């Protein structure tokens, strides 16, 4: 069965073109100013114009307020919202208000961290399992950190889900096989420097996923 791909933290037309050429189903725009991948409203609008309609646009947020969500959904013509560090009740409210597909990010280091996924039942449409970044880290994602993929093996997922955290062309086949993922997300693993997407790495990642 085909494994779907989200290329996250895209901020240039070249990276969009590479993701689309590689067969990505989703492209992520980060709306979080401390991130090297942050895009503003006008930039998001211009990038969105470049994304063909069969590829879904995902806004990535850290516990956003309503004003930010509304402005970016409109500017980036977003199809889905990926919320980090956001309580399930708040996620449900944003989902109800925007009518966008809602993805709840679950930060994982130990097995008990997976309990958070259950709390998104009824509040989200999909779970993104991502590596938990260290206490006090500037970013809750996009840091190239992995977690133990074996934690997901046999886990009773409450919702459709995707695997994230420290993936790259060299390890994605192992990750998919170990976790049983049908969808993967990558950011720093297809970059040459923080926030700088590398079109060759995007192509290599997509090729590696296609061979899973
Ligand atoms: O990527 C960011 O800068 C970011 C900032 C704030 C919240 C989330 C962020 N990224 C979330 C993602 O979906 C990343 O793709 C995911 O964490 C995996 O990143 P990486 O380990 O670098 O592949």
UniProtKB/TrEMBL annotation:
The keyword Isomerase applies. Keywords: Amino-acid biosynthesis, Aromatic amino acid biosynthesis, Isomerase, Tryptophan biosynthesis. Pfam families: PRAI. It comes from the Bacteria. SUPFAM superfamilies: Ribulose-phoshate binding barrel (SSF51366). The keyword Nucleotide-binding does not apply. Pathway: Amino-acid biosynthesis; L-tryptophan biosynthesis; L-tryptophan from chorismate: step 3/5. Gene3D superfamilies: Aldolase class I. One of its GO terms (molecular function) is phosphoribosylanthranilate isomerase activity. Residues 5-207 form the N-(5'phosphoribosyl) anthranilate isomerase (PRAI) domain. It catalyses: N-(5-phospho-beta-D-ribosyl)anthranilate = 1-(2-carboxyphenylamino)-1-deoxy-D-ribulose 5-phosphate. One of its GO terms (biological process) is L-tryptophan biosynthetic process. Its EC number is 5.3.1.24. Belongs to the TrpF family. HAMAP family: PRAI. This is N-(5'-phosphoribosyl)anthranilate isomerase. It comes from Stakelama tenebrarum. The gene is trpF.
């Amino acid at each position: 069965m085909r494994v779907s791909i989200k290329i996250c933290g895209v901020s240039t037309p070249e990276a969009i073109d590479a993701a689309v050429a590689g067969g990505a189903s989703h492209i992520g725009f980060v709306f979080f100013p401390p991130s090297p991948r942050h895009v503003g409203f006008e930039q998001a609008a211009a990038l969105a114009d470049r994304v063909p309609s069969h590829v879904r646009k995902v806004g990535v947020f850290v516990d956003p307020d309503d004003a930010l969500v509304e402005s970016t959904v409109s500017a980036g013509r977003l199809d889905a919202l990926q919320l980090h560090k956001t309580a399930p009740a708040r996620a449900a409210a944003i989902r109800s208000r925007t009518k966008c597909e809602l993805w709840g990010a679950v930060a994982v280091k130990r097995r008990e961290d997976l309990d958070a996924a259950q709390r998104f039942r009824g509040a989200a449409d999909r779970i993104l399992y991502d590596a938990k970044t260290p206490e006090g880290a500037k970013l809750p994602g996009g840091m190239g950190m992995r977690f133990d993929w074996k934690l997901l093996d046999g886990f009773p997922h409450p919702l459709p889900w995707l695997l994230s955290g420290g993936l790259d062309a060299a390890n994605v086949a192992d990750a998919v096989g170990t976790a049983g993922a049908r969808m993967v997300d990558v950011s720093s693993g297809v970059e040459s420097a923080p926030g700088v997407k590398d079109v060759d790495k995007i192509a290599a990642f997509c090729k590696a996923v296609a061979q899973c």
